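Q&A log
Question type: sequence-to-structure
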Amino acid sequence: MDWRMRRALRRPTAGLLSLAAAAALAATPALAAGKAQTYDGKSVRVGHGTAHTVVRTDDSGKVVAIGIVLSETALDGLPKATKTKDDFPYLLLMPTKGPRTVVDHAVLNWESQGHPPPHVYDVPHFDFHFYMVSRAQQMAVKFKSEADSGSPAQQPPANLVPAGYIMPPGTAVPQMGAHAVNPAGGEFHGQPFTATFIYGYYDKKLTFVEPMASLAYLKTKPDFAAPVVRPASYSKPGAYPSAYSVKYDAKHKTYSVTLEALE
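Response status: OK
Response body:
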């Protein structure tokens, strides 16, 4: 047997090892894809703590939740209102890794004195804006006055507005949009404002969804979840929430406001 035949006989073993190694490498992504994942956005300083966005997937890689997480200390040392400023926005970028979602970016607004309407949302609270438009488009939003939200020129098509929601005059905010509220909410009937869900529009398009939660309610360390009334259709294709939650995580000492049951 010459050296050529000896080399030929040795090749199958090496080939089998190579095939096994390749198979192991090929299996690695599949194993990773079969595990639920959490992707975090970059943290931003808020109060004495931080806030960031989060995207969660299930075992199949499908996005099941989009949220904003605040550290426990973020509720302390928040900016105080001045004569010229009482709304403090924090831009929160979406995670750079993981699947893309319908949300382009988020803005956490600390409303140090609340905002209209009186005796409804005029208590210190957070607005959790999840924008479906780009940051540039958001910043280009403008109105002649807050009353523009009641103008026929701003009223979106009925299929974009959830049943029971209205967009009254006085909810048009520059660099945000016109806000549609649910007048059936307890806060409109003498109950203290705790948490609610709002839809936002501009130029007759749905541009953001917005859970809100009062500072006092967050400090109770809630474990709250509720269904979301959905419109018949959306301006931007994608998966939107059928529920949302406001929760405190005692283990990690964090608060989270999350869009859930995405469809």
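Response note: Residues 34-260 form one domain.
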